[in-house]
Specification:
The complex is a heterodimer of chains A (117) and B (114).
Chain A: E1 5-7, E2 10-13, E3 19-24, E4 31-38, E5 42-50, E6 65-69, E7 75-79, E8 88-95, E9 107-108, E10 112-116
Parallel strand pairs in A: 2-10
Antiparallel strand pairs in A: 1-3, 3-7, 4-5, 4-8, 6-7, 8-9, 8-10
Chain B: E1 3-6, E2 11-14, E3 19-21, E4 23-26, E5 32-38, E6 44-50, E7 56-59, E8 62-65, E9 75-77, E10 86-93, E11 102-104, E12 108-113
Parallel strand pairs in B: 2-12
Antiparallel strand pairs in B: 1-4, 3-9, 5-6, 5-10, 7-8, 8-9, 10-11, 10-12
Classes of the chains: A mainly beta (117), B mainly beta (114).
């Protein structure tokens, strides 16, 4: 079946511009995550959505970052007034949710490589 | 809080050598443990998982055993190939306030030479 789809795969933007990154999760997965992978920084959790619950935004690095998930499916990560330090690969993942779901893996998309010039 | 610690890298091996990548964790409750692999230019793929103590996950010749007494989940392969060159991430998923979140180790770069 279809996996997690992210678009665009690459994005180059000028410092100060806003960008939107899109994620289309696996059908039936109610949990959706955004991570950031920077060179030498490993994988950094950004935000987590589960069903209709309030999202866990504890990983967002500043108020320039926001995300929404419409209709429990597609998610958009928005970065306002981009800075050079925002350059990274932004990864989206989805999974099953619920009490027994901690044994279920996260399924990742191929990511969006963001370059801020 | 939850955390995962992987051995320092990078790791460089010759083809057919034995591989061990160490991973230890700190978590409350009973986490599930995962190894993910990232091949050059690609996204993260699940390599294997274990969901309770003494479980052994295996895939593509790789194995890891969930050791609760030592809080470890070391990755092993008896004979590596050039195609195994990638970045390997150990991760856990635990119950708690953000039980859905995967907590990752810092990643280990593996390079296998012919």
């Amino acid at each position: 079946g279809a996996g997690v789809s992210q678009s665009p795969s690459n994005k180059v933007t000028e410092k100060g511009k806003d960008v939107e990154l899109r994620c289309d999760p696996i059908s039936g997965h109610t949990a959706l995550y955004w991570y950031r992978q920077s060179l030498g920084q490993g994988l950094e959790f950004l935000i987590y959505f589960q069903g209709n619950s309030a999202p866990d935004k504890s990983g967002l690095p500043s108020d320039r970052f926001s995300a929404e998930r419409t209709g429990g499916s597609v998610s958009t990560l928005t970065i306002q007034r981009t800075q050079q330090e925002d350059s990274a690969v932004y990864l989206c993942a989805s999974s099953l949710a619920g009490v027994g779901a901690i044994s279920s893996p996260l399924h990742f998309g191929n990511g969006t490589r963001l370059t801020v010039t | 809080g939850n955390s995962v610690t992987q051995m320092e890298g990078p790791v460089t091996l010759s083809e057919e050598a034995f591989l061990t990548i160490n991973c230890t964790y700190t978590a409350t409750g009973y986490p599930s443990l995962f190894w993910y692999v990232q091949y050059p230019g690609e996204g993260l793929q699940l390599l294997l998982k274990a969901t309770k103590a003494d479980d052994k996950g295996s895939n593509k010749g790789f194995e890891a055993t969930y050791r609760k007494e030592t809080t470890s989940f070391h990755l092993e392969k008896g004979s590596v190939q050039v195609s195994d060159s990638a970045v390997y991430f150990c991760a856990l998923r635990a119950s708690g306030t953000s039980y859905g979140k995967l907590t990752f180790g810092q990643g280990t770069i593996l390079t296998v030479h012919p």
